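pasting GntR family transcriptional regulator for the record, 281 residues
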Amino acid sequence: MAEVGKINTLNIVKMTDIGAYLDGGDLGEILLPAKYVPEGSEEGNSVDAFIYFDSKDRLVATTETPKAQLEEFAYLKVVQVNKMGAFLDWGLPKDLLVPYNQQKTRMVVGSSYLVKVYRDHHSDRIAASSKLDKYLDIWPARYEIGEQVDLIIATKTDLGFNAIVNNQHWGLLYDNEVFQHLRTGQNIKGYIKNIRGDGRVDLILTRGGIGKVNDFAPALIAYLKAHKGYCDLHDKSSPEDIKRAFGVSKKTFKSTLGNLLKHGKVELLDKGFRLTDKGNK
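structre below
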């Protein structure tokens, strides 16, 4: 059975002048308009299509990919506001509605907001909400320290950045441990740093110890290969210069450089270091 608000792989059951009809199971046959039908398609073929309601509230299919599917979070721009609410550009002909009662703050045209795409149980329509707390788990998080997780960057705070962890919980990245530019809506990998006594989650973008060194080493090697095997930074360089070049702390830079020296992949010069033949393999 086809799922509304998601990309489905469906079979073509009928070809017509206006498009292809797809087998939606209990939802019946769903029209894929002719402009979206892949060239050479015929009855019996399968097609990947997103199912949603058009401007006349009819189920319709498209091969265009929306910026977010049902149950996903996305950072979307407001393109219109009327008496029904705000409408977001989510990459489809029909914009995505955020009803007024689902707006954490009143939305304005031209601004972007982090929202959750949901299906309204009363109207059965796909909509969005910026009231994110109601869609995140209220139960204490159960993660292991050092566990890798998927993050969606949310709001900037006095302490750092709030982030959604694995689409389930709120977590916090502290300012003094962030060494790269972050933006609202950004999807990024992170790690569990700590679970506080109140169940709140502290996050970090790099693993500690040898894991952090292993994470950065390939990036440093790639940098050297892209710069004729040479880097003019060294252990006396300022933390600001290192962060600007690589987006990591000076401690991580020095640890990684030391590990590469130990394995003979780089060698020190009077000002900087360079890649060896062993490191270039």
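The longest helix spans residues 209-226.
The helical segments are 209-226, 239-246, 250-262.
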